Fold this protein.
Amino acid sequence: MANPKKERKGIVAVFRYLDKVSDAVKHMHRNKQFRDHVIYSPTSYHELMEHGEKVYGFSEVRWFTLVGALAGIATGFGMPIGMDWDWPIVVGGKMGGFYSLPAYFVFGFELMVLFGALATIIGMIIMGRLPDPRGKIRHNAITNDRFVVFVPGVGVDSEQAHLLRQWGADEVHHSE
Amino acid sequence: MDRKEEQAPRLVTEGPDGRGESLTTKEMRTVTEKGGKDLMSDEIVWQRSISDVNDSILLGIDKPSKTYYIALAFSVLCMAIGIAAWVYMINVGMGVSGLNSPVYWGVFITNFVFWVGIGHAGTLISAILFLFRAKWRNSINRSAEAMTVFAVMTAGLFPLIHVGRVWLAAYWMLPLPNTNNLWVNFRSPLIWDVFAISTYLTVSLLFWYMGLVPDLASIRDRVKGIRRLIYGMMSFGWTGTVRQWHHYEVGYALLAALATPLVLSVHSIVSWDFAMSAQPGWHSTIFPPYFVAGAILSGCAMVYTLVVPFRKMFQLEQFIRKEHLEALIKLTLLTSTIVSYAYSIEFFIAWYSGNEYEWAIFVKRASGPYAFYFWTMVFCNCVFPLAFWSKRIRNNIAVAFVVTVLINVGMWFERYNIIISSLVEDFVPGSWGHYEPSLVEITITVGSFGWFFTWMLIFARFFPLVSMSELKLIMPKPLSGDKLKSLKEGEAHG
């Protein structure tokens, strides 16, 4: 699916109702005339997320989190062990380093969460193609209460526009 | 249909074109109960549609009320007084703070623990309740998250204030080698705390900002000129594509999963600042869960204390509903009972352990020179919240507000009681002393409240206090008349 930057001209179909747009999405999924279309939603409705799951599959954000968390664990244990190795401090007659491993679980845990969280955000930004300073805002009400389907490379008199109207679009217009 | 039913408000679930027909709230509820789960996603009967959300919630941003400016001026004044006292203390010396042998941890550390505790409810409400699918959190999670971030920022000030020469604080607190090229002691709970609090602040900030991104895009699409540019940049150019939502949802769930154990770990680590020492009254294995429960209690109480005036000030009563506030009160009641249990068990173990030093501290807490602080703590945290067993009181916002303020007071006294009463009388009677907060400490404490409320008010002026995109998920879905009719017919045919 859909990199709207490839083809910035096309049609925008605006839907008011969730059931109509989710039906339209199912139709489009089966119809070969619709390729590279982009769906916009004001929030993460389950009906549309199911479609996202089908199209984008397993979200790679999980991998970012895993790698970040593992790097955090390694850093959390490596930092105090490395510093103890550089200059051992004897506290209460006890050596540092591997002898004090339980105390370092705190750093391992905290940095796992910290690095994992930072990596999750990075993953979400990269996979969601953000930041997107040239991202076209197809309709000002998308972030309010409207659902929008953008079909690139076709006009308002096309077969696709006709079908979208038939499937319940309230308006279909040209988009630059 | 009886008279009451006829008067039930009609939900605005379809457009003005008049296609289909709307359902009364009672019909809505019936259809939902009969399996029309896609009709309503929450047990609350809403009288607004998702189309009202942005306009109503952003009204406060467009036109803040006069009360807002009065509150802001008062907060800034308190903050200025606090800053003046801090500057005075730096200029004259730490002696004016009243910290001296044997009490070197006084009001500043009390404030630190208090504010970290306040910061607990935000991530609890956002992360833990998100994972438990408690939908009521969607209306208050933004305020709670903002509260968390600002409370932890406030808490972070106190170790800096406490060390006196603040310009050297980074050198003392971070893992930097000292003049003898020695690294910090990684087996000290104080350095654990630095890592725990820094991680908590960063993760809370990320969680809060991540939730804000779709809402910032909503503001961008309403405003013009330079504001549009700024909100556009802050929203990273969010356009609401299904692709963005898909990765966003996974990222949000993962962050919640990471933040959940973090919430529990942070106050546990704060409690180890005390429990790892051999001081009577501190050296207790119950401290981590006791501190976490106390933190959640104070956090929930503070969310309530904040949300009630803010929902009035920004006219959010339609979205932060009584049902949501009642759910928050129930959580407060639950944590109050856990805290009461912890207080009792702490006393019981002090007696049962047979450790005379431990027992002496506890007896003195309840009957010695600090008995006032102890009994204030008990009444505010254990006795007054019992009123919440009554549904009438839970739903009486004014009474519940007073009780939550008292809980905040009680939680501050709890920290004061733990810290001071254990320090004034330790193992060596020759070093015993007495401690009362000095004027400088009290003024800096007042300043910290000013600092916290100033940030909250500035936030409320430029950002939505309710997460609009998440609120829409618990409101009636925008379904067409055809769909509503088919659901009604399905219900009629059983």
The beta strands of chain A are 10-15, 38-40, 147-152, 171-175. The CA atoms of residues 12 and 150 of chain A lie 5 Å apart.
